[in-house]
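Dear U.,

For the methods section draft, I wanted the exact inputs and outputs in one place so we can describe them consistently. I've listed the two proteins in the order they'll appear in the manuscript figures. Please don't edit the token lines directly; just add comments below if something needs changing.

First protein:
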Amino acid sequence: MQTITNVFITNLAVSDIMVNFTSLWLTPTYTSIGHWIFGGGLCHGLPLFQGTSIFISTWTLTAIAIDRYIVIVHNSSNININDRMSMRSCLSFIVLIWLCSLLLVTPYAINMKLNYISEPCDFLICSEDWSNSEFRSIFGIVVMILQFILPFVLIAISYTKIWLFLNSRQSMTERKSDIKRKKRLLRMLIVMVVIFAICWFPFNLLNCLRDLKLDNFMRGYFSFVFLSVHLMSMTATAWNPILYAFMNETFREEFAKVVPCIFARRPGSGPIRVITERTARITNPFRRANRTKAPEEQPVTVISESQSQAAAEPQRSIVYLDEPENGSSCQTLLL
């Protein structure tokens, strides 16, 4: 599974886990109760972890889109296959993403302040305290460009070019299965771009309005709006594993090899072979060679699921699933 795409997917998973441990529950909790209860250290640490994980997530999605564009368009156009980044370049790019993300959100952590409020009751508030409000507004716009606008443009361009390239390669002799697979891929590219925009645009727009002090019209219900768009952006951590991992055929195949019991076929999902003690010598079911082909001198009967249940009742038998063509192991069941 050590491919460029899977390394990026792993990095995406790490960043999404960070989001779930920080932004997903800390920000809604603070917004709901209205005061800070997590201590001074976390007041400075929350924007650091939260912002870093969000930057890593969006730029990893961008890297995946660019890598797919290079692999599909460039390599299919007879351009040198070495144009795809090497594993060392991939890891270096991931380290660069982490360092740049950490650097970009450090000003937020530095300018956070824990304020004590005595009236109407004693409580603490963790909020930003910038000495230069104009710099704060400019910095907020820069963050929006780097966290949403630029990644969205690069992702949209990459997938659009893939779309155009695949459409341009249609031929009259193309099989129906290939056409169906291509259409499914094209729909998936659209879904990826749309979900990225839906998840992150409202959140970045609201932050931009707040940075520019244009949010006065929603003062009465700002907390509700902020909580809504925040939770909407957090749903990206639920979509990412589906879109970029489990809908990746290669990733599914490799994952099935790592965790075979999850993807093993259940009894009755296909033909089964029954070998009884009266007609065959019971061999080790975990040996691939013995399960691939029965001994020639021992009769083997292949029957349907309903027939196997009736045939197996009078005698003790071993039932196991036919081995797939790729040679992967199957479950062994004792009757």
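Second protein (the one for the lower panel):
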Amino acid sequence: MPREFFELKELESLVKLVREASVVIRSDPFIFIPLFGLIFYFDLRRSKEGEVKELFNLVKDKMVLVNKVTVSDSIKGFIEETLGGKDCDCEVNIYWPDGPP
């Protein structure tokens, strides 16, 4: 399903959203903030070096670094694709820290 991504042009706007967000996703050169059912993003190439360092200090407790983005229809499909097309005869266990929703 297609998603809309809202580009933030100013670092100040990014800082406002970061304060509200529970997680900030970094996949260079982008910062993504999922918030209110929307996805906001900021292109780090638009910033000065000092600003990026300041931003990283601000979001260090909320930021997760994404190494690779993969699209799949299911966990089983993801495992099969990641293992190079091998059939997945695996059990998937879901851990809910606070119990199931």
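Candidate sentences for the figure legend, describing the second protein: The radius of gyration is 17 Å. The chain has one domain: 5-82.

Thanks,
Y.
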